[in-house]
Write a structure and sequence with these properties.
Layout (H helix, E strand, L loop, with lengths): L1 H23 L4 H18 L5 E2 L2 E2 L6 H22 L5 H23 L3 H4 L1 H22 L5 H28 L2 H21 L4
Antiparallel strand pairs: 1-2
């Protein structure tokens, strides 16, 4: 839709230019046509929509298209996890998936503000987030398949273990983005504790 509108605008401006030069200024047909084509190309290029993540123009970054695709895939995976979790009946499993989704949203919020970190996060986004989506999908499918109780309990136990591990990995990934601030806070807390000890108890 956007591409069609872009083409239409460029074509309209180029036609107006052509007829203005040809009929209004009485320029030669070929000259008017060449300039009109130039106007079309110019307007088409200028009206190209910017690819934005948050407030950042991604095309201004190195590997901008690649960064944008990684981010879009991440958003799609979050959407899949949300949709799958809506159909999960087991509250324990659903709660762990919900925790994964919450951490994903925290990570997405950070990456939206810091798009340059997307490339560095590629392995996590491409592997672990997609693995989480596959595990949840497999569990959802098996929950609906009416397999035997023993088999289902075995699947549930494995899914629980996988989700626990993934939640740990996701949390570490989120926290890694704030490592410097966390370290700074720990240092300030240590200094504050030392200051309190030196000054005696606060009354």
């Amino acid at each position: 839709m956007k591409e069609s509108l872009r083409n239409f605008k460029a074509l309209l401006v180029s036609l107006l230019t052509f007829f203005a030069l040809l009929l209004g200024l009485k320029w030669h047909f070929i000259v008017a046509a060449i300039l009109a084509v130039g106007v079309y190309v110019g307007v088409y290029l200028i009206s190209k929509p910017k690819i934005m993540i948050g407030n950042t123009d991604i095309e201004a970054l190195e590997n901008g298209q690649e960064i944008n695709q990684i981010y879009k895939d991440f958003e799609d995976d979050i959407g899949k996890l949300k949709a799958l979790n809506a159909d999960i009946n087991d509250k324990e499993i659903s709660g762990k998936i919900g925790k994964l989704i919450k951490t994903c949203l925290d990570i997405r919020f950070y990456l939206e503000k810091n798009p340059r970190e997307i490339s560095r996060s590629r392995y996590f986004l491409d592997y672990y987030v997609k693995t989480a989506s596959e595990i949840v999908k497999n569990y959802s499918d098996l929950e609906k398949s009416n397999v035997s109780l023993d088999k289902f309990n075995e699947i549930k136990d494995k899914s629980n273990q996988s989700l626990d591990l993934l939640n740990e990995i996701f949390s570490k990934q989120r926290d890694s983005y704030h490592k410097d601030k966390i370290n700074q806070l720990e240092v300030e807390t240590d200094l504050l504790e030392q200051t309190i000890k030196l000054g005696g108890e606060i009354k």
